[in-house]
Write a structure and sequence with these properties.
The protein is an all-alpha fold. It has a single domain, classed as Endonuclease III, domain 1 (Orthogonal Bundle), CATH 1.10.340.30. It contains seven helices and two strands. Helix 2 runs antiparallel to helix 3, helix 2 packs across helix 6 and helix 5 packs across helix 6.
């Protein structure tokens, strides 16, 4: 958890510099840019199966999801406006002490998943939706002893 700087961080990035950089700079930072949100949603769905390149359904779903994404933007003005409604427009500030406490899904991710599916999205199950919510800062799931937790609003700051 500590590196040469003495910072405590969540244990999942391990010592891999790319994971650490992603953890320290990007994961959990609120995203409101539609292009980035589509990229994150697509990547989360792809990560559910390491065989994405050979999974024709996932490749085809990206095209269908893009069409559904554009319909959502048309209806709500932006995908961000649509998506952030599931957390009342601001990040949920969790206070987990261990990785084991962090759920794989929540009632909000289930509602988000259900709504996306009704709008024609595919590969957007509740677990994928929760991973997306974590990545784009809809929830702050950094552990409380991680330096990013407080930086991203944990503890009321």
């Amino acid at each position: 958890m500590d590196d040469a700087t003495g910072l405590k961080r969540c244990p999942w990035p391990t010592s891999d510099p790319l994971y650490r950089d992603y953890h320290d700079r990007e994961w959990g930072v609120p995203v409101h840019d539609d292009q980035r949100l589509f990229e994150f949603l697509t990547l989360e769905g792809a990560q559910a199966d390491p065989g994405i390149v050979r999974n024709r359904l996932k490749v085809e779903s990206t095209v269908g999801n893009a069409r559904a994404f554009l319909r959502v933007r048309e209806e709500f003005g932006s995908f961000a406006a649509y998506m952030w409604r599931f957390v009342d427009g601001r990040p949920r500030q969790n206070a987990w002490r261990t990785l084991a406490e962090i759920p794989a899904s929540t009632p909000e991710s289930a509602a988000f998943s259900r709504d996306l599916k009704q709008r024609g999205f595919r590969f957007v199950g509740t677990t994928i939706c929760y991973a997306h919510m974590q990545a784009v800062g809809m929830v702050n799931d950094h552990l409380v002893n991680c330096f990013r937790w407080r930086e991203l609003g944990g503890g009321g700051h």
